[in-house]
Design a protein that fits this description.
Elements lengths: L25 H12 L12 H11 L4 E4 L4 H9 L4 E6 L1 E2 L1 H9 L2 E6 L1 E3 L2 E3 L2 H6 L6 E6 L11 H9 L4 E5 L20 E6 H5 L7 E4 L2 H10 L7 H11 L3 H27 L4 E2 L6 E5 L5 H9 L5 E2 L3 E2 L5 E5 L3 H19 L16 E5 L5 E5 L2 E4 L38
Parallel strand pairs: 2-4, 2-7, 7-8, 8-9
Antiparallel strand pairs: 1-10, 3-14, 5-6, 9-10, 11-12, 12-15, 13-15, 16-17, 17-18
Helix pairs in contact: 1-9, 2-9, 3-8, 10-12
Length: about 425
């Protein structure tokens, strides 16, 4: 069953959708106005998308591209193009991989990342051990949705080079990740990469994406896609934004990464003080873990006019989890304040040393140390509570290798060619 964010009819902010909190740059808005003023909606787009392909190749520094109606379309096209018999899905992830496997009659095999403290880690050795079947398609998101964990794409490129299986790498949030080295997608003979323009340009009403694949697979995906899978307005908008306005788009990506890095860290610090565990993230969202079920908390937030994504709708997570997008500072403060109020309601009146709820002397779980013990704030200093932790999400999980990280930060990347660094 499909589950997505964005189905929110309330008046408050919707933290269930992961879009760039920065609005499109003026040059992108001007490109869209130009497309509308020229009445392109009354014309079919070029079904070969020649000019759009050229804009994508130039902007991202790649060769073979397939235009997509959002990156999600690429999962189905890739599975059909490689003639997969088995779909291996790295999870936590969205449940559409399982739905797709069932619809196509494929064998479905989950490969689950494991928790280690405040991080979900992908065991590359285990992934490599699963890539010997030429009839298998291994699907993973990077940065991972919903955990925000990240693997250096160069490591995945190296891994795919030794695979007999096909590797489908969904990089829908790469442009918004401060950990991603540059902008150019990885390439390889057994590697298919999906990208989304919808997310970083914050235009969910315009379905925009593309795939980078080996020539033969790209030709098959092209043959399988609908002739006009990208509408004329979206095609015009993307072609102009990535073409004549490319310099402004590079700068927009850098500014977006810088803002998200700072604001995400600020949000993580606040939610730790509430008793929630934020997982390390390099994307434009945070996965949070409650001590028990997060369902009552989600309902309290919605009663306040704030929507979040239920973590239990993702394959590999249970109802202790919820995911929140990083939005504007004003919206984020509204969410953080509501989380604090909901926590106070759940605990009842403060019964500590007489301070008001939220005062420095209140004991609050800050997360876990390396040994799985709860870090508790007692006044201005953090101490470790000995014995059984109040909040130990790692119980019952073996410790996997740490996620491989790397690449320069956005401040090191220059507009244009600098973002093509690999």
């Amino acid at each position: 069953m499909r589950h997505h964010g964005g189905r929110w009819e309330g008046d408050g902010p919707d933290f269930s959708v992961n879009l760039n909190p920065l609005p499109p740059p003026p040059e992108a808005a001007e490109a869209l106005r130009g497309c509308l003023s020229e009445d392109v909606a009354r014309r079919y787009p070029d079904y070969e998308y020649s000019e759009l392909r050229e804009a994508l190749r130039s902007f991202y520094g790649v060769d073979e591209v397939v235009p997509l109606n959002g990156s999600s379309e690429g999962v189905l096209l890739a599975a059909l193009a490689v003639r997969a018999r088995t779909l291996v899905a790295v999870q936590p992830s969205y449940g559409e991989h399982r739905d797709l496997a069932e619809a196509l009659g494929l064998r479905y095999e989950p490969l689950t990342m494991e928790m280690r403290g405040d991080e979900f880690a992908l065991d590359l050795g285990e992934l490599e051990a699963r890539c010997g079947d030429p009839g298998a398609l291994i699907a993973l998101t990077n940065p991972n949705n919903p955990t925000g964990s990240f693997v250096d794409p160069r490591a995945l490129e190296d891994l795919a080079a030794g695979c007999r299986s096909w590797v489908l790498l969904d990089e829908a949030y790469a442009e918004l990740s401060d950990a991603y080295p540059g902008l150019r997608p990885p390439v390889g003979d057994r590697l298919i990469v999906l990208r989304s323009l919808t997310k970083w340009l914050s235009v969910p009403g315009l379905r925009l994406g593309f795939a980078v694949a080996p020539r033969e697979i790209a030709a098959r995906m092209d043959a399988l896609r609908a002739p006009w899978n990208v509408g004329s307005i979206a095609e015009c908008f993307a072609r102009r934004s990535l073409g004549s306005a490319a310099g402004a788009m590079y700068i927009h990506i850098i500014k977006s990464r810088e803002y998200l890095s700072v604001e995400r860290a600020r949000m993580a610090d606040r939610v730790r003080g509430i008793g929630l565990l934020p997982f390390r993230s390099s994307a434009n969202f945070l996965l949070l873990m409650h001590r028990r079920s997060a369902r009552p908390l989600v309902e309290r937030l919605r009663a306040r006019g704030i929507n979040v994504r239920e973590g239990w709708t993702f394959e590999g997570l249970d109802d202790r989890f919820l995911r929140v997008a990083v939005r504007s500072r004003e919206d984020d403060d509204l969410l953080l304040g509501s989380l604090e109020e909901a926590a106070i309601e759940r605990r009842g009146p403060h019964k500590g040393t007489g301070g008001a709820p939220g005062s420095p002397d209140r004991n609050t779980v800050q997360g876990l140390d390396g040994g799985g013990r709860a870090l508790v704030r007692r006044g201005p200093r953090d101490r470790v509570r000995q014995g059984a932790p109040d909040f130990d999400p790692t119980a019952g999980h073996r410790a996997p290798p740490a996620v491989r990280r790397g690449g320069p930060g956005p401040g090191d990347a220059l507009p244009g060619a600098g973002l093509h660094a690999r």
